[in-house]
Amino acid sequence: METDSPHPDPYVPERNEPLVAGVSNKIGSVLVVGSGISGMQAALDLADGGYYVYLLDSEPAIGGLMSKLDKTFPTNDCAMCVMSPKLVDCGRHLNIELVTYADVKNIDGVPGNYNVEIVRKAKSVDEEKCTGCGDCVTGCPSRYVVRPPAEGALYEPETTADERDFIDRLLREEEDVEGNLLSVLQDVSEYSRYLPEHVLKYLSDKTGIPLARMISVATFYDAFSLEPRGEHTISVCMGTACHVKGSGLLQSRLEDILQIQSGETTADGKFTLQTVRCIGCCALAPAVRIDEETFGFVMVRGLEKILNRF
Ligand code: FES
Q1: CA distance 43 to 37
Q2: What is the whole-number distance in angstroms between the Cα of residue 283 and the centre of ligand 1?
Q3: Domains of the chain, start order
Q4: What is the position in ligand 1's atom list of the atom closest to the CA of 243?
Q5: Residue 216: its H or E element
Q6: pTM over cut 0.90
């Protein structure tokens, strides 16, 4: 692997040589593929044991799936509380080099002596200079610009007079917008049924709160969406309890009935279908929530009857 690593030529052990620090008195380098909670822990253990570790992930940031969870099953522990210390430790550990936004292309060699070819995707960010301020996200010319209106789009690209009135009224009523950003976004989401980028941009212009901050809050919570949502949101629980009770079948059947995939909205704008992780009523598994109403012990044959109520 070509790398700018400050680590002087990682040691490559001979064939069959024990790869245990302190036994051979020699230290090798290790590649850990995947930087979820297990990958991070493996990297930390190896690094503490004296190995130089390349922690690789195909995403731009480490953390994996767990970084997207609010709570973990079955203990209901806060996911970020568990993983944040590990994120920091991995970022600071002198024996760990993060290789993000990269994929393994080829592996050859024998156990203890592998050559790994890695493809790094273009980041368009100078990692030496990046301080993580997020300003580049705000000014990104391709990702967060107001999109031109697509044919049949459910929203206009520019704010309407009604939207501006709504935001202005909201700002007059809210004294500390930055401190109460979550509830402000909830109000916007209720008003528009999602968080339109052009409205967020208007809000950002009026308050000086960076658009990137609003986007990061909006994408952290399942309750928010940056895409137009239907009149009703159907959430199929795919948490462990519901999954083992067959919620996958419910999801497939709903996709058939509505003719959309999870994450999409029906053409008439009536329903949005999504999957969620544990909605907190595992005793009712498999559970489905439509808007604020929860349905328990749902059976495939009962789905149409439930939908007809909406
Ligand atoms: S797994 Fe808890 S409600 Fe579905």
Answers
A1: 10
A2: 8
A3: 29-120 (3.50.50.60), 135-220 (no CATH), 232-308 (3.40.30.10)
A4: 1
A5: helix 211-220
A6: no
